[in-house]
Write a structure and sequence with these properties.
Shape: globular
Protein name: Transposase
Number of domains: 1
């Protein structure tokens, strides 16, 4: 069983900024960065 990744506030902010700059959908960004979609929120 894999352990859930806990992100710091700064990591979350960086992911949101990277996602916005990428032009990708949130779903695709999450898939590419191995982030659970249900936990990725703005």
């Amino acid at each position: 069983m894999q352990k859930r990744k806990l992100y710091t506030l700064e990591e979350k902010r960086q992911h949101v900024a990277s996602w916005r700059a990428s032009g990708l959908t949130r779903h695709l960004y999450c898939e590419l960065h191995d982030i659970k979609f249900s936990t990725f929120r703005e």
